[in-house]
């Protein structure tokens, strides 16, 4: 009697990707896969191309070579709005909330990707209770940690197929980092697929399934977080 394992579904498949800023090559033949329901982390020092990789997935930088497939559909030549509507949620480094708009207005903007239909999902307030208490407060009046929670909630408003998080712990106080970690683990239990760019290794050890390490625009190591040699990876990403 044969027991067939369920086929692994790859939500994001990137092969031989190159990215440029002007004439400068930033990414070199990058290959990276994100399996459905997994949390994948891209580690590396500052300036090695991690954020550029996420921008490449979103279509925000020049990517003349390679392949980016979302659920088996090639999107490398598609505009940013197409990728967002196809199901990629993106929280950039620095969060990019609208400081002169209220928390509620920022969340409503997250719905614009799907034409603004429907109300703000109530589960966002379960994930981030502080936002419900601050609906009428301007985004610029929030702390850095609260702004990060708002940015993640805004990206989740349309239930993305793939969530990209760029340095979610940067400049955040430890208590908020723990809250964000708990939210990410809850999202994983609910079936979300997440790709995180991060430098804080301890944060990743508690939440991620798979990791990649980038240096000088290329992937230099990858594997399962459960089998990671922590000291070796820490050396590779040390500033």
UniProtKB/TrEMBL annotation:
Pfam families: ABC_tran (PF00005). This is Urea transport system ATP-binding protein. Residues 12-239 form the ABC transporter domain. It comes from Pectinatus haikarae. CDD domains: ABC_TM1139_LivF_branched. InterPro entries: AAA+_ATPase, ABC_transporter-like_ATP-bd, ABC_transptr_urea_ATP-bd_UrtE, BCAA_Transport_ATP-bd_LivF, P-loop_NTPase. Keywords: Amino-acid transport, ATP-binding, Nucleotide-binding, Transport. SUPFAM superfamilies: P-loop containing nucleoside triphosphate hydrolases. Belongs to the ABC transporter superfamily. One of its GO terms (molecular function) is ATP binding. Gene3D superfamilies: P-loop containing nucleotide triphosphate hydrolases.
